[in-house]
């Protein structure tokens, strides 16, 4: 969406046009959601931040200084509310600069895995699963950056910078580095699995011989 | 070395996976669209100017019992100070209007509103409330000229 178009929607919504509001929500909800997910909030916390951000916007519609940069306003608001709620829940907050926290992993019996299994059935499921697993093994800062970049529709670098509190100039190099790392992880996971399959086959062969 | 084409391809692939398994939950999208109905077009906005959770440096200067979360909202004519204490998922509010005055306070949460009265010294309290996005709207008693004051939404 063009900046002029966004500014037009903000002005229309501020004037009471609910269709304009819906268009704004539909366009930017992917970005707002991606940011809450990037901060690794629990589902209820992510839901609270998501809703708080939209309620906040509804009250600020006629007070936003640069309506054409609404995406950056939303990204900044979501980041601040994510940090706030992470503090109130008393958890460690992964920040882009310092995080080395353990991110956990996809538990094979978790609801997340169940959703994964069902949803990915139509895709090249194994490849997608490998990719998601590799993504989850990245450092927190890479996961956060890539998750925001993966928002649908893709955000501008100004929005990404606002979402993560990082200079726009460092986004491109960080993205390249994180994608390199993801590629390495993916290659490692795929070859580890092949090795495992290979061992399994070898074992079977040996037991057949014996 | 992988070049930009490789990066873009991997990124596209990841984008498809993310879209499949981690898109915005439909119920949240509905709620966000519904947020428009909560606009207070006839009220002054009291912006969140202090939150003891994040404003560390000033935290020691703020009065309070020391165990709650202190929030301060400021509009041109009124400041609303609130202390929030938590027990599990329930919240208790103790508030103070500055300058002190009696008022009707609507506590807005999700799809419900709880209305309480602030006494002539501007004090009010409420709870237990549910955790989640919350906004207070104050109407000064007997004053039909001045607009009401609504605070920024904040998740408590």
Structural class of chain A: mainly alpha
The share of residues in extended strands of chain B comes to 35-45%
Helix content of chain A: over 70%
Shape verdict of chain A? elongated
Structural class of chain B: alpha+beta
Strand fraction of chain A equals under 5%
Helix content range of chain B: 10-25%
- List the uncertain runs of chain A: 91-108
Order of secondary-structure elements of chain A: HHHHHHHHH
Number of beta-strand segments of chain B: 10
Sequence stretches where pLDDT stays below 50 over 5 or more residues of chain B: none
Most extensive interface between two protein chains, with residue counts: A-B, 55 and 46 residues
Figure out the total of helices of chain A.
9
Mean pLDDT of chain A, nearest integer? 82
Q: Provide the residue-averaged pLDDT of chain B.
A: 87
The SSE string of chain B, one letter per element, is HHEHEEEEEEEEE
The CA-CA distance between the termini of chain B, in Å, is 48 Å
Largest sheet of chain A: none
Number of strands of chain A: 0
**Tally of helical runs of chain B:** 3
Q: Nutshell version of this structure?
A:
The complex is a heterodimer of chains A (210) and B (156). Chain A is an all-alpha fold and 210 residues long. Chain A is built from nine helices and no strands.
Features:
heterodimer; A: 210 residues; elongated; B: 156 residues; alpha+beta
Outline the structure in words.
The complex is a heterodimer of chains A (210) and B (156). With 210 residues, chain A is mostly helical. Chain A is built from nine helices and no strands. Chain A has helices at residues 3-14, 18-38, 43-60, 70-88, 111-119, 125-136, 140-149, 157-164, 171-209. In chain A, helix 2 (18-38) packs antiparallel against helix 3 (43-60) and helix 2 packs antiparallel against helix 7. Chain A starts with a helix and ends with a helix. Residues 91-108 of chain A have low confidence and may be disordered. Chain B has 156 residues and is an alpha+beta fold. In chain B, strands 1, 2, 3, 4, 5, 6, 7, 8, 9 and 10 form a ten-stranded mixed β-sheet that branches. In chain B, 20% of the residues lie in helices and 44% in strands.
